[in-house]
Amino acid sequence: MSAQLLDGKALAATIKSDLSKRVSKLNSEGVFPGLATILVGEDPGSLSYVSGKHHDCEDVGIKSIRIDLPANASEKDVLAAISDLNNSKECTGFIVQLPLPTGISTQKILEAIDPKKDADGLHPLNLGRLVAGFDGPIPCTPRAIVELLEHYKIPTQGAKVTVIGRGITVGRPLGLLLTRKKENATVTLTHTGTKDLTKHTQSADIVIAAIGQANFLKAEMIKEGAVVIDVGISRFQSGLVGDVDPSASAKSSFFAPMPGGVGPMTRAMLLKNVVDACS
Q1: pLDDT, tens only, 86-125
Q2: Which residues form the Tetrahydrofolate dehydrogenase/cyclohydrolase catalytic domain (predicted)?
Q3: Both 150 and 256 in a single domain?
């Protein structure tokens, strides 16, 4: 079986083209979306990701504001930068790039963001809105995955979905999204405490790997023709490696690779959250 590629790069380009038109319309009405980022330290992956976000802003006509703090920045320094953006008229939405250096509380940082400017959808208030089914910014990577599935007409109604990983940025909010009435999937959220993980992945119609362990998902862990989405990233001198082993991707019917699958869509969803908030 040869898997059909879920091409996040191509779909993201289409979404960005649409967003460019929406931004032009907003500008004509006197509304100017502005995205800001706060990056602490010089992690190569985070630097690359943040740079990509600002390049995306340029592509669609969104003003971008970049705040880079040194690795030894204190929690107080980060909170001060957040306060500035909360009060900035030019910034309509912003993110703090995660993970943060040791010694800085992620909880304190996320709670300090103005929920109305939370472009990542990770403020506790916005996550609570997601739980309740209310409108609000949706975490970017889960939203990217759902839009990929929808675009490629992969049915989720009644589908069995196994998510590997329970992190706040992917696993937990993704489970909430896929169990909405619109998607109507049955989701099993697996983690380090899960007994017989393979039992869950082998019975799933859709498997989403998001743990950051290179080549973790093997062919024998999935059923023939399953839809497989690779979200995890491991960095080696030779380059980036996803969570899905090539043997598993070859056994799937649809496959979202890493890179080129969910990553470009995550960045597109960040822009979409900013434009949606202004609209």
Answers
A1: 999 999 999 999 999 999 999 999 999 999 999 999 999 9
A2: 6-120
A3: yes
pTM score: 0.94
Token pair of 275, please?
A: 């434009």
Q: In this structure, are 146 and 219 located in the same domain?
A: yes
The b-or-e profile of 100-117 (16+ CB within 10 A means b, else e) is bbeebeeeebbebbbbeb
Q: Which of 53, 117, 251, 272 is catalytic?
A: 53
Concerning whether 120 is annotated as a catalytic residue, the answer is yes
Q: Is 53 a catalytic residue?
A: yes
Sort 138 into a burial class: Cβ within 10 Å, 0-12 / 13-18 / 19+: buried
Domain assignment present for 183: yes
Active-site choice (7, 16, 97, 230): 97
Question: Domain of 204: which CATH number?
Answer: 3.40.50.720
Residues 181 and 235 in one domain: yes
Active site residue 205: no
